């Protein structure tokens, strides 16, 4: 059972396809891991309240807050060049972003499936 | 003819010049030198200390170019060699008794991560009570850890088995950690003749394979070792290990065949002694087998058809060979120097032999003998007694359903 036969096969189906000892030979693979099922509450960003301070982006332990190049003008007429969004595939619903938000722009909403 | 004779004489002389006197511990260290290990992490524990000392000495005087990691425990020693093996290095470690127990959780990791770690194990009794003398309790404690276990009978076998261990462990079809035992004190501290093999010949036998034939840690090609094996994949990784264990006998045989071709010494999975016409036979392990051979010799003088089977490769268990060897005997005894407490019978090797014969429908009188725990001396006359017991069983046609303890101080009758 040589190692070569496992290369280039991304998704094993049976033990024969599995890389030796479960080694993961392709880096960055955790990007593909879906942790959304862990959530009971999901963060929802109120774009109108958000002041783009980036604290949620800093504190998110999973890098699940995305900084998007999308212009936004709030109700007071203030214009922002960027918008923060939640990556709901990787967010595990820990609520740190909502806790850290200085303007309470993030609400933790019960997950409904 | 004269030329052939001359060549033979020269060869014999060359072999003679390579013969030295060595303890088992030194033989193990010299084997590590001759296979040119890259990393050695050994925590000294009686009776293995001299291996650690000798490795340090060989590195200090320039005979071996290896990285010696001074670790603070056996757990760290095993962790260090697993990590070193994961980078593609050839590694060596050694331990004994409680040290092996401290390594225990790492033993599973070595086999689960499929790292070809090679270890010398100076077999010794387990505490409590504390005891530094020889029995096979420690070796038996690692039989289910997924390691290949090879027992040695004498100092030469320690050296030869360790060299073969590198051939086997690093083979792409196996990639399992391998341990070679040497009986504590009986082999580890006894000086015997040892025929060394020139280093270049050893290295052309146990070739250091180029990087990349197995997954290794490499900054240019990142890989994750030891990820979480959730219920959806853990089982499949275990099956890989099981299949590697099933593949191992082929490679072990190949290693032995190649070894014989190059260096002239023959090794099998088991060794049969006087088994051609044997009526009663005892199965044993390691250096104890020599004693059983002596008992067989004595019985043969008396006209008793006794025989002996020594198991060299204990895991993977050579069931086919053993069944074949014991096919024609009337009664089988198993001499254990370890205890499987509370087992159906208390001898761990006996359980293996009994199941080997049972699943093949070979029903014959059997007896489990335990003797020599914690370095208790076994004498030839006691093994002769065991053979006499087997003759009795052969006549009555019934197995002993309880383990027979020999050599124990006892007021009640234990056998």
From TrEMBL, chain A:
Q: Where is the signal peptide?
A: none
| Gene3D superfamilies associated with the record | 3.30.70.20
Taxonomically, the superkingdom here is Archaea
InterPro entries in alphabetical order = 4Fe4S_Fe-S-bd (IPR017896), 4Fe4S_Fe_S_CS (IPR017900), PorD_KorD (IPR011898)
Q: Which Pfam families does this chain map to?
A: Fer4_21
Instruction: Tell me which cofactor or cofactors this protein depends on.
Output: [4Fe-4S] cluster
Q: Which residues form a coiled coil?
A: none
Domain 4Fe-4S ferredoxin-type span(s) in chain numbering: 41-71, 82-111
Tell me which UniProt keywords the record has, alphabetically: 4Fe-4S, Electron transport, Iron, Iron-sulfur, Metal-binding, Repeat, Transport
* NCBIfam families xref list: PorD_KorD (TIGR02179)
Which protein are we looking at? 4Fe-4S binding protein
Q: What is the originating organism of this protein?
A: Pyrodictium abyssi
Automatic annotation (TrEMBL), chain B:
Q: Which domain of life is it from?
A: Archaea
EC no. given is 1.2.7.11
Q: Which InterPro entries match?
A: PFOR_II, Pyruvate:ferred/Flavod_OxRd, Pyrv_Fd/Flavodoxin_OxRdtase_N, THDP-binding, Transketo_C/PFOR_II
Entry-linked Pfam families: PFOR_II, POR_N
**Where's the Pyruvate:ferredoxin oxidoreductase core domain?**
278-383
Q: Where is the Pyruvate flavodoxin/ferredoxin oxidoreductase pyrimidine binding domain?
A: 31-255
| Keywords, alphabetical | Oxidoreductase
> What reaction gets catalysed by this protein?
a 2-oxocarboxylate + 2 oxidized [2Fe-2S]-[ferredoxin] + CoA = an acyl-CoA + 2 reduced [2Fe-2S]-[ferredoxin] + CO2 + H(+)
Q: How does it assemble?
A: Heterodimer composed of an alpha and a beta subunit.
What is the protein's name according to its record? 2-oxoacid oxidoreductase (ferredoxin)
